[in-house]
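call fold(seq) -> tokens
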Amino acid sequence: MKKIFLIIALSAFVLPGNVTYAQNPRRALTGRQLAAMFPPGVKSPECNPDGTVTFRFQAENASVVELNCQMFDKNKAMTKDEKGLWSITVTPPAPDIYPYCFVVDGIQVTDPNNVLIFPNENFKNSLVDVRGPAPDFQDMQDVPHGKISYRYYHSVILGFDRPMCVYTPAGYDPKGKEKYPVLYLIHGMTDTYETWFRVGRINMILDNLIARGLAKKMIVIMPYANPYPEMMRRGVARRQDVMGTDIFTKEILEEVIPFIEKNYRVRPDAGSRAIAGFSLGGRQSLACGLGNPDTFHYVCAFAPAVFGDEVSTNFDNGIYAKPSVISSRLKLMWLCCGTSDFLYQASLVLHQSLQERGIEHKTMFPGGGHTWMNCRDYITEVAQHLFK
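ret:
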């Protein structure tokens, strides 16, 4: 049966010149045939020796093509040559990893010549990695590397299987004796369980910090914090309740943590658990962490989506535990937000509310906006203070 399937599969492989591989399996491919099968691609993005970056996009019939990149506040117009190749060369403000896309006659598209993709439910972006003269913590360096695993668990609460990504540090042995603390790391709105390692580079950051002795070895759990797309597909939800935190908290406490503690060598105590999140993930982390200080002794929020009187309301209605309980349990709390972030003022209100309630916390308010460039800086700093 396998031989029959193989012959059928090969018969569909047609070479230029109407010669199938199945007809002559030992015939070497000619240069002409290889060129027809693999035409030369467009090089994009290209990081140039002078520090500039060139983006290119082939679109003979397009009227307008623009570069949308988080290096800049506005789209930049690209120019078209006689072969229909659009291009633009720009100077990055600093070495970093920048999301970008092309806007082709008003439609956003990823760069088809770039394998670095930004995982997201809505917008479609690629990534350009602009390196500096010296490697940064987010860059791959010559150090021992951990492992990213894709794992799945069945959610009884939701009624279907759920994905997550798990980082285990270099040297982790599932049959060994050493046990590790755990960071539950939550993505932002419309991001996915892949975003923290594909865009946030949490694996590279921790590899480099751990190798230098700046961070403890830890396991990082990156769950898919938004079940609503799958719930809507299955007809069990009609809309997304993105601001609600009940389902998220329940799933983390009753399903994700038990799954991890059953399948990984972790220390199952609150002093060995941290939760952190960006944007909507920051909102969820605050609800889950401050609401359960007997489960998490480390709580970190990066530009959390918490607005107005919600902090007071959350303390009053029990989403957050009593301030005295939080203060007696937490070992560390961080609040981070860029001063140009649209959530900066909300973060200041949260900061003041925590101060008024006597909840000790650290803050990090650098320049920059609601970006993963800032987010990588947040986690690089915060990771150095966890579990110590």
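Residues 46-130 form a domain with the Immunoglobulin-like fold (CATH 2.60.40.10).
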